[in-house]
Design a protein that fits this description.
Mean pLDDT: 82
Largest sheet: none
Order of helices and strands: HHH
Radius of gyration: 31 Å
Number of strands: 0
Structural class: mainly alpha
Distance between the termini: 94 Å
Length: 73
Amino acid sequence: MLSLILAACSTTSGESRPPPDIVYVPKVVDTACDWTKPIYVDASDVLTDETARNILAHNRAGAKNCGWKPKSK
């Protein structure tokens, strides 16, 4: 009987429950507002409709996410 108890003790790690899973969550730092700027067009610029839409989408996203304001005259 004693040999069974000793055998059981030698096969366990001594902990009654497994250690909790450690989850490392990476910290995301959005720096896009630091290196992106609004796109300004001049009256002499010739743009396709698609390019104009893309510039408008870029500037609207920057206004929403980075707080860009219209250029003052």
